[in-house]
Amino acid sequence: MKVIKIFLIVGMALLSVSCDKWLDVKPQSQLDRDDLFSSENGYSDALIGVYAELCDGSLYGRELTYGALDVMAGYYDKGNMMGEFPYLYQYLYKKDNTNKQDYVINIIDAFWSKIYTQIANLNAMLQTIDGNKNLFSGENYNVIKGEAIGLRAFLHFELLRMFGEPYAKDKDAESIPYVDEFTTSVTRLYTVDEIITLVLKDLETAKGLLENDPIHLGTTPSTVLASKVTVDANNNIYAWHNRRFHFNYYAAIATMARVYLWKGDKANALSKALEVIAAQEEKFPWVIAGNLMNIGSDKISDKIQDATFATEHIFALNATKLETLSDGYLYGGQGSLLLTDRSIYPSSFDYRYKNLFKILDGTTLYVTRKYESLSNVSAAFKNRIPMIRISEMYYIAAECEGDGTLATDYLNAVRNNRGLTAEKLENLTPDLLKNEIFKEYQKEFYGEGQLWYYYKRTLAPTIEANKNYFTSIDLYTFDRPENEDAYRF
């Protein structure tokens, strides 16, 4: 049986509550782990450490959002790209390509190694949590355990979307290991279909444990479960707001919707998407148009700037170093990731067109404001990296609903809250509906890495902006790192 070696970087250190701290795991240091996991705060700190590492520029702090994945999805002007990005744009990362670029391959290899390291950290927590149940008060044990299991499933699915074949292409192909215990033992490669099954199983377990998640109940989280937030009902900021920045009850359901859609199981994808949509008005209210008017202003009085539509986030990361991570890529005058125009937004009434871009000084090129981090902006809205947002649930519902009128209504629900109330979609044929959903993915997920996955899931035969380089759907599947395959036999 083929197996794979996962290299773990393991050990534990107590952490603070921001993404500028990190968790390091050393297998030889059982004493460190015992010390960390001697209180419920220790488990909370360990989770925060995982989120902190996910904020790294090699992961969601850049490459898996506005960096590598969006470059390959064809968003940016290739003439202004610098560094590794022109080579990513040309897909020079397959190991059988004679023109491959090693430093581009290293970027992709880091997705594998760093995400599996965080999976190891989660498993280290889960290995001890049942034996320490007496340390927890209230619902903290169930919520923290559910959060860890759910995040582990989420991260495995992320790896599958990168390193596994598209489900529609070959569901029986070997893909990745599913590592659900803290161990240095080899873990075999599972097929795409097997990984889907394991992910869904973990997500169902997580959902059950997260039943009393404060974001689900609408209650104030304990300090163990989330940092406090200043309630601002006028701007839809409530006591549970910071549970968005943890893998929560609704994140488990929303991820299931994603997974079922990846599998092509539209009935279950629709069911899960609608389960989240049912809570949308109370838990994930649409962005307030007035909160977009002052984006980019550094006036103290303009502190309410919701550039990422934070109230719509089902799951997000709090990246406290986002300004540093984006400098030289999106901001700071260098601007290697730029749009020559905003043609993907055909309407000037679209909030995403009007409010989320600016002209780079002295040029005719556009740079996104989505991740611009100004010191005057309220903490409830700054340094946010969306991982799952409510609009995606509406797009999934639109794609999976068999009734064309209802499907169009789901699409219009998002468009109405993007300033397009006067441009209602009606009487769409199935092909036109599919095209409108695609266009919404282009507009909505700029800077978030999700368009690349849309192309892969749908087996798009070409990526228009990159059509001279994208020559085969085989390019959608990243190669596993060479040092991983070296341990298979």
UniProtKB/TrEMBL annotation:
InterPro entries in the cross-refs: SusD-like_N (IPR033985), SusD_RagB_dom (IPR012944), TPR-like_helical_dom_sf (IPR011990)
Domain RagB/SusD: 364-471
Subcellular location field: Cell outer membrane
Domain of life: Bacteria
One Gene Ontology term, aspect cellular component: cell outer membrane
Membrane is among the record's keywords: yes
Chain ranges of the SusD-like N-terminal domain: 21-215
Keywords carried by this UniProt record: Cell outer membrane, Membrane, Signal
Stated family: Belongs to the SusD family.
Name of the protein this chain belongs to: RagB/SusD family nutrient uptake outer membrane protein
Lineage: Bacteria, Pseudomonadati, Bacteroidota, Bacteroidia, Bacteroidales
